[in-house]
Amino acid sequence: MLFRLLSLVLLLVAGPALAAPVRVASPDNVLSVEVTTDGDGRASYAVARFGKPVIAPSKLGFLLVDAPKLDRNMAVAELGRRSVDETWQQPWGEWREIRNRFNELRVGVTETGGLKRHFDVVFRVYDDGVGFRYEFPQQPQLTTVKVGEELTEFVLAQPGEAWWNTAFEWDREEYLYNRTPIEQVGLAQTPMTVRYADGLHLAIHEAALVDYSGMNLARVEGRRFKAALTQSVGDAKATRTTPFTTPWRTLQIADSAGGLYQSHLILNLNEPNKLGDVSWFKPGKFVGIWWDMHLDNKTWNSGPKHGATTAEAMRYIDFAAAHHIQGVLVEGWNKGWDGEWFGHGSDFSFTEAYPDFDIEKVTGYARSKGVRLVGHNETGANAARYESQMEAAFALYEKLGIEQVKTGYVSDAAQAQVIGADGKPHLAWHESQDMVRHYQRVIEAAARHHIAIDTHEPVKDTGLRRTYPNWVAREGSRGQEYNAWGSPGNPPEHETNLLFTRMLEGPMDFTPGVFGMKTRSPDGVPTTWAKQLALYVVLYSPIQMAADRIENYEANPKPFKFIEDVPTDWSDTRVVNGEVGDYATVVRKDRRSDDWYLGSITDEFGRVLTVRLGFLDPGRRYRAEIYRDGPAADWKTAPSDMVIEQREVSSADTLTLRLAAGGGQAIRFTPIPGGKPQREADHRH
Question: What per-residue confidence (pLDDT) applies to 641?
Fold first, then answer.
C-alpha cells in the first residue's frame, strides 16, 4: 500500500507529459506490452510480437453518464509486477491439464487535476496472448461508477482480413460469419478473428464476464476499433460500486488459426473452480425429442402432434439404453407452449407437465435403464418468471435424478424480460448487465442442486466454465437446426468458420450427427455423412447430441457406431491443420483410454490433406477405424456415400485424407494389444 501511495504521488508531481512508457514482456519474450500517455494525458497501450507491432497505440479510459469522463489529463505509474507459472486440471474439457504462465504488470492511471480519480489497469502477458482489465479501488471521490461507454481501443497494426458476426441485430448472435478486409468490418460481436497480411492470426474477445455488460467492437475508422458495450436497463451500460473489476479484454495471438484454438488464455483469465467437487457431472451424449419438431413432424405444444409424450420418451430411453447413450432430451414436456410463447414466456411452468407426459414415470423408467433425462426449460426470454420458479424446479429435478438442463431464451434481441433495480419489469438485451446477472443466478442455483446447464440463446461464453464447471455448454451461434428450416441454412463453410471463431469462446451445443439429409430447407443438410461424424471431434462439447431421429440411426448402424464410440471428454487436443473458413483437422485423446480420435472437415471445396500421426504413442501399433467420404460423395448429390474401413498404423505413418465437397473424415485410433497385425477390412456403406 505504501508503494502504491508513493507511486501515485510521484506521477501526480511528474504530470502526464513526462510519463515514461512502462513495458512488460511475456515469459519467453514473444509478446510485449507498452503503456504510456500522450501529450494530452490520454493513457494508451500497444502490443508487439518479436518487436513487430500487433496492436498500435490504443486508448484506455471511460465515459461516465453522471460525471466527467476518465480520459484526458491522466498520468500512468507502475504499481507492481509478478510472474506466475502453474498448472491446473480441468474436471472435464478439451485438455486435462492447463498451464497458466504469464508476466503481470499493474499500472495506476490517475487524474492529474480535478477530482484525482484513479483506476488500475492490470496486464497479463502470455506467449500466445494478452489479457487486460480495469480495477477500480474504493475511493471517496468515486463510489459508484456508471459507465456510459468504455474508451478501450484495439488499433490493428497491419492490414488483413477479418471473420466477424454482426452485433446488435434482432437475431442476437445467430448470423453467418462475414469475411471482409479489416477496413470493411462494421459493428462486430466478439470473438472477432483476424489474419494479417503476413499470416499472423489474432482474435479479440473477453474473459470472465461477470456483473457487467458484454463487449462488442465498433470500427471507428481504418483499422481502429473501439469497445461498444451492450446497453443495460437505465441510463448506464454498466453500473458498479467500488471496489470492482471489469471483465478481461483479450487478444489471442498465434502464427496459425490452429494456434488460436489451442490457446488457454480465456480459461486462464477466469477464477479457479468455486464449486469444489463436481464429479456429479458426467460428460456424455444424448438423443432427444427435438429434431422431429424442427422438421415439423411433431410439436412442442399440446395436441395430436405433441412430441413429448410418455410413450415417445420411453421409446427414446429404450434406444439410448441399447446403444450406450447416456441421456435423453425431452423438449415440450411442460405447460406453457400453447399460444404465444416466443419472447413472452409468461405461461411457462417449469414443474408442471402436460397430461400426456408423466415425469415421474419417465424419470423412473430412465433410471431403471441406466439413462438420465435431460431437462428442458424454455423461458421465452422471460428471465423474471424463470427466476421466480427456478429454485423449485431445480429441487424437483434433483429429486427426480435430472442432472442436466437445457435452458432457452428465445426472443428478438433487446426483448428479454427482467426486473430492474427499481423493482419493475424492463426489456433488456441478452448481453446486458441485467441478463449477465440473471445467467449467473441460474448457474449458481443449479449448482446448489447438482445440475449442469446447457444455455441456448445465451450470453457469450467467456470461460466461466472454469469457475462454475456446471456451465457445461452453450449455443451462441447458428446450430444444426438452421439446416432443418427453410432457406437459408448453414453453408458448407459454416463449421470451418465456427472452429476458429465461436469455438474460441468454449463448448458449443451444435447438435451434430444427422443422417436424414432432406429437410424443410431446399439445400437440406449441406454436409456429407462423414462430415457429420467428424463434427463430434471438431466442434467440442462435453455433452454431445446425436441429433437425428432414432429411426435413421436404427437404419444405419455401421456409421452410427462412430457416434456410439466417440467420447466427449478429452485429455489432449491438437489442431493438426486448418484455415479459417476453409478446412480443419483436429485430433483428441480420450480421457479414459489410450484411444485417439480424428475429425477433418472442409467447406464447399473438396480437398486432399495429409496428416502425420506423430501424436500417437511411439512404438505402439494402432487399429484405425476410418469413416471417410466415398468416391462419389458430394454434399449436394451423394451425401451418404461413405467408406468404412480399417487399417493398421503407427506414429511413424502419414495418412492422406480425401475430403469431398462439403465433406469430412472421422477416425478412431485404438492401440492393438501386443501390437499384432490386424487384417484390413473395407466395405462401402
Answer: 98
**In angstroms, rounded to a whole number, what is the distance separating the alpha carbons of residues 191 and 127?**
19
What secondary structure does DSSP assign to 489-550, as a single string?
---TTHHHHHTTTGGGTS-B-----------SSTT-S-S-HHHHHHHHHHS--SEEE--S-H
- In the predicted model, what is the mean pLDDT of residues 660-674? 97
CB-side neighbour CA atoms (13 Å) of 74: 27
pLDDT digits (tens, 9 = 90+) for 125-140: 999 999 999 999 999 9
Q: What is the mean pLDDT of residues 67-79?
A: 96
Q: Which of 481, 493, 505, 625 is catalytic?
A: 481
pTM of the entire predicted model = 0.95
Site of grid cell 456409421: 559
Check if the beta carbon of residue 460 is closer than 8 Å to that of residue 190. yes
Model confidence pLDDT, tens digit, residues 281-290: 999 999 999 9
Compute the chain's Rg from CA coordinates.
Answer: 26
Q: Please return the burial class of 25, using the count of CB atoms within 10 Å of its CB with bins 0-12, 13-18 and 19+.
A: middle
Give the C-alpha separation, 213 to 436, whole Å. Answer: 7
Residue 423 Rama label (left phi>0; alpha psi -120 to 50; beta)? left
> Which pLDDT tens digit goes with each residue over 176-196?
999 999 999 999 999 999 999
Share of the chain above pLDDT 70, in %: 96
Measure the CA dihedral 281/282/287/288, to 10°: -10
For residue range 501-550, list pLDDT tens digits in order: 999 999 999 999 999 999 999 999 999 999 999 999 999 999 999 999 99
* Strand-pair partners of 96: none
> What string of DSSP letters covers 233-296?
SSS-SEEEESSEEPPEEEEEEESSHHHHHT--HHHHTSPPPSS---TT---EEEEEETHHHHTT
Contact partners, residue 489, CB within 8 Å, separation at least 6? 482, 483, 519, 521, 523, 524, 525, 526
Residue ranges of E strands in 92-157: 97-111, 118-126, 129-136, 144-150, 153-156
* DSSP summary character for residue 113: S
- Quick one: cell of 238? 454498466
Instruction: Kindly report the backbone phi and psi dihedral angles of residue 120, in degrees, each rounded to the nearest multiple of 5, phi listed first.
Output: -105, 150
Measured CA to CA, the distance from residue 527 to residue 639 in angstroms comes to 6
Give every CB contact of residue 172 below 8 A, 6+ residues apart in sequence: 413, 430, 457
Query: Which residues on adjacent β-strands are paired with residue 590?
Result: 570
Nearest to 579 by CA among 124, 272, 257, 154: 257
Residue carrying C-alpha cell 479489416: 182
Cell of 425: 419489469
3-state SS assignment for residue 390: helix
Q: What is the pLDDT of residue 20?
A: 79
C-alpha distances (whole Å) from 480 to each of 143, 291, 517 are 47, 9, 11
pLDDT at 5: 46
Q: Rounded distance, CA 287 to CA 464, Å?
A: 26
Q: Give first-to-last CA distance, the chain, whole Å.
A: 71
Distance between CA 377 and CA 587 in Å, rounded? 34
Q: Does residue 1 have a pLDDT over 70?
A: no
Which stretch of DSSP H or E encloses residue 653? none
Phi and psi torsions of 211, nearest 5°:
50, 45
Task: Check residue 13 and give its pLDDT.
Answer: 43
The mean of the pLDDT values for the chain is 95
Give catalytic status of residue 481 as yes or no.
yes
pLDDT tens digits, 324-365: 999 999 999 999 999 999 999 999 999 999 999 999 999 999
Q: Which three three-digit cell numbers place residue 623?
A: 487399429
Is the bond preceding residue 283 a cis peptide, omega within 30 degrees? Answer: no
Confidence of residue 627 (pLDDT cuts 50, 70, 90): very high
* Grid cell listed for 209: 464476464
